[in-house]
Amino acid sequence: MSRAFRNRIPFLLVGIAISALFFHTFPIVADSSEPSATLPTRRVLLEDSSYATKATSKPDVVRVPGGVKGRRKRIVVTGGAGFVGSHLVDRLIERGDSVIVIDNMFTGRKENVLHHLRNPNFELIRHDVVEPILLEVYGDPLQHPQVETYWGNVNPIGVRSCYDEGKRVAETLSMDYHRGAGIEVRIARIFNTYGPRMSIDDGRVVSNFVAQALRKEPMTVYGDGKQTRSFQFVSDLVEGLMRLMEGDHVGPFNLGNPGEFTMLELAQVVQETIDKNAKIEFRPNTEDDPHKRKPDISKAKELLGWQPTVSLREGLPRMVSDFRQRLFGDSKGSLDGSLSAE
Ligand SMILES: NC(=O)c1ccc[n+]([C@@H]2O[C@H](COP(=O)([O-])OP(=O)(O)OC[C@H]3O[C@@H](n4cnc5c(N)ncnc54)[C@H](O)[C@@H]3O)[C@@H](O)[C@H]2O)c1
User: Fold this and answer.
1) What is the 82 CA–ligand 1 centroid distance (Å)?
2) Lower Cβ count inside 10 Å, N or C end of the chain?
């Protein structure tokens, strides 16, 4: 990247997603009518015009002030038509930011952001940012619960490794840019999250059980059902991401609910919430399925003042009404899955 190019309007890139949330300064061509042509493989782009002035006088290190507190921002959210991204967009719009969503609609849905389409502070761009990474850095952890200093236990050639290693390399690259180019980054390690707007058939356990119970199908439990997971409601995650974005700490931070459930306990909560007669069907487990995953969130509590507030028994009914609405057109559900509308 040439210095002259770098001296153009700098942008601050915020990465949500997966396990990585990073802030990046990013040069963009002067023609703002074609922002998508210049987008890199990152998740959220933040523009702060006051920063643009400062940065031009310091051409070599494209750096932004720690945190992004205060003023109204123009923010690009990649994957913003997805489950987590769309709830983050709601929060940003709600507080007065101007938001551009870039999403290739691979798993995202226009319906998730439909309620913003007439808002002049909102723009949706269908575009592929070519980000190949998905899930978790800890793999099948040997330490329980997982603290951020734990390096994980990942089989590099297993069926799940493209997810786990993808997350890990995202963190590595973020930190390299941070150390090498002085770019502000933030890293979040997101644990299982559920809530309204979740993909109905994406194979995640909560959406599987809820959709199956609503459709009167048996809930499929893989293995003996004794493997544990923690489930965080999406509004808790969004609050954590906002605090991380606004704070001065790079992370990584575990963002998850430390409450631990076995798959069988989860199935029981779904039975209590939807249908006490819902059946359970056991299937052979998938290779490399982590036995336990539970975040240690002491660091986020201490440095971000964050912890989840919504229990599974409180959150699940809010997701169920959204699923009912989408599966059966039941008008009792919130029409756009907004958390504030429920
Ligand atoms: N939901 C969870 O439990 C959970 C847990 C851990 C990590 N995460 C991570 O959080 C992030 C968001 O998860 P989610 O549950 O909202 O998933 P999602 O599938 O609902 O959202 C992902 C969004 O990114 C879009 N997208 C994918 N590839 C793209 C590309 N190349 N260019 C542009 N857009 C693209 C999709 O269309 C979708 O809208 C993911 O990275 C996921 O791995 C989620």
Assistant:
1) 6
2) N
Q: Could you report the per-residue pLDDT of 60-84, keeping only the tens digit for each?
A: 333 444 455 557 889 989 899 999 9
CB 190 less than 6 A from any atom of ligand 1:
yes
Q: Atom 9 in ligand 1: which residue has the minimum CA distance? A: 18
Is 250 within 8 Å of 314 (Cβ atoms)?
no
Options 51, 138, 163, 177, the catalytic residue: 163
To which CATH superfamily is domain 3-328 assigned?
NAD(P)-binding Rossmann-like Domain (3.40.50.720)
Dist CA 170 CA 96 (whole Å): 30
Both tokens of 216, joined, read 């009167």
Any ligand 1 atom below 6 A from CB of 80:
no
Residue ranges of the domains in the chain?
Answer: 3-328
- For residue 288 the two structure tokens come to 């490399």
Please tell me the predicted confidence (pLDDT) of residue 120. Answer: 94
Which phi and psi (to 5°) does residue 165 adopt?
-70, -30
Active site residue 163: yes
Q: How far is the CA of 105 from the centre of ligand 1 (A)?
A: 10
| pLDDT, tens digit, 9 for 90 and up, residues 264-283 | 999 999 999 999 999 999 99
